[in-house]
Amino acid sequence: MIMLGQFNQALSGTIGPCLLVMSLSVLLTVGEGRNRPASRRWRAIGVAIGLAAAVVFAILRGTAILNRRSTVNLPTLILGVILDVALIAVIVRSRSIVGRWRRTSASRVSVDEMGDASVRRARLWMNVANGVAAADIAVTIFFAMPDVILQLTNFVDTGDSPFTSDMLLRALGFLLGIGMTLIVAVVFHTLRTPDIRRAFTAAALIVAILQLVMHATELFSLLMNMMILVLHGPAFRVLILLHNHELWMTYAQALAFLIPAVASIIIGLRTTPNGCRLPGDAAIPPLNEAGVRARIAFRRRAVAAGAWSMAAAIALTALLAWGTYELNKQPVISEPEEYSLVDGVATIPFSQVEDGHLHRFAYTAADGTEMRFIIILKNGGAYGVGLDACETCGDAGYYEQDGKIICKRCDVAINLATIGFKGGCNPIPFPYQVDDGAIIIHAADLDALSAHFQ
């Protein structure tokens, strides 16, 4: 579960920005030679700026130098929404923008020599498209990555050695989440063939639109939290609906690439070795031997790219859904055990609680309040006794998982040695006695603490 938590958070936090970068690397690729590195450099700059800013922001948050994220997130989200809208326009026009750039770049005559305004416009719009893409990449990474980076601070529990099995599991889960994101993006990138350009553009457009919706949802939520904006009625219900289903939008971003995946498989299966289509299609002149081999290779690549992309999209969505389900699954709480209660004195023999596991007991206070208390044998041989409640989280209670006692509300693992002492998220202690191989608890001591369960 420790490893799964890190994996799920790293995967869900990075998949959106990664799919965005991958999509733009396909749609705004302008060819070979000096043009392609120039287009790639725009995206590299956007990624570098976004990551650098995210690292700095994460450090400021982690060290509590910056304790109000809204001062940074508000302008970031406003800029992000504006850039998302511009990016959608770029994606819609990407084929035209890139086509014009290729035609003008094919000329060996400079713009000054030609004096052609259309050449200048083509190159200007290509640079504008790359600039919008780079800026949107930077803002998207800057907003999404700080929470992922701050996961690194959770690798080691406070007071524990930095080299533990839990730390290794967390690090492994984190790296697997990042690795899964990169693998999926690389697989989807194989769908870049021009034959399915429209299908790929549709998938990229879905990714950008969902990104706009998520950024707008976060923006309006932040405006409401800061009391800058107040929504009522249908608008408020729509905002809550979108906010509660952000993970579903992440699923949709990945599943959008089923569109070009299916298109790739179809076009591959429709391609025959002799260069002709299936019956009813327009005839294509017969090809020579080299052409036949090329079409066979194209068929294999198209089918393989589509099949692997479908598998990647479904696997990523299934892993995210399963991980979310497991992490949000309510822990199993043990049923209260029976014990002897005679004349206001509860007696619990050592033999009932000496196995080192959490034991829960129920008690009805004099005022009718239903209470719970727990007992566990600690490592030093002493018993930890306290209410199944704490000062911080109230009567949420505790459960045992992998040998640890964990608060059900805040998910904090309780140090066994501190159970029976006041403070923090520890069970609220109360007086008890040890006599003749049993733990003796007076009901009056429990009655005095009934307010913690009301």
TrEMBL record:
Domain (Membrane iron-sulfur containing protein FtrD-like): residue spans on this chain: 353-453
Signal peptide: none
UniProt KW Ribonucleoprotein keyword: no
InterPro entries in UniProt: FtrD-like
Keyword presence, Membrane: yes
Domain of life: Bacteria
Protein's recorded name: Putative membrane protein
Organism: Bifidobacterium pullorum subsp. gallinarum
